[in-house]
Please model this.
Amino acid sequence: MSRVGLIVNDGKELALNTALKIQQSLEKAGHKVVRVSSSGGMVGFANPDQHMRMLGYNACVPEGFDSSMAFAIVLGGDGTVLSAARQTAPLQIPILTINTGHMGFLAEAYVSDLDSALEQLLSMQWMIEERTSLVVSVMRGEQRRWEALCLNEMALHREPLTSMCHFEVSIGRHAPVDISADGVILSTPTGSTAYSLSAGGPVISPDCPVLQLTPIAPHSLASRALVFSDEEPVTVFPATPERLMMVVDGSAGCYVWPEDRVLIRRSDHPVKFVRLADHEFFQVLRNKLGWGLPHVAKPDRQ
Model:
């Protein structure tokens, strides 16, 4: 009897109802199901008045999960997928994402296609697509004060009602650069369609082995998005006397103080997505974001 995972957004009624149906189908097919909540991957924001979260990124792996699992099914929206990535990537468990949320940019299937998706999954007619993930660590000297796994992006920015900030960014062996802006975003290709896109960064195809640095509201016309090899580790030094806020994938983060530095490096554990069909990225952009739609001239009004 093989063991499989089921990761559910417990705050969504549709996800709960769908999870029950999936668990029954999997158990009927002879699988042992380990069901957990996606909340285990939501690290949250560290309270500056309490101890920092000094645990490594492996701390999000749920109890009962191990590397022998054939796959895990994720039920929820894009936020749930980001949480599930932290729960499964350290063990290299492939995840099938079924959307029960809104946009579902990271979804492979929808509830309306559930029966056919399960049939294809159980008959092993699927492929694996690997997506780059990052390890984001807040360091003070040699002490690790905070750490999390990241699929989309790390954003480091000023607090509300404070002035513009300065960031010294060191990328691998290259000379460090100084950026004056409200903040900086360091994203993967997967994250290039998220916060970075809203800040003016380019869309990057997920099969490109690169990372992207995007300033938020830069104070100079010379500060624009930069794309570089994902083999280069990145260190961001906050060159400002005020504390900064760091947010990872929208559901994890902490304050970063002037004496800290943020270290970002490509993880050795990519996120493995189950693909039931050939994943055509341009088509996803077209369907979800309206990219590349033809322009139709409007008729003249007489």
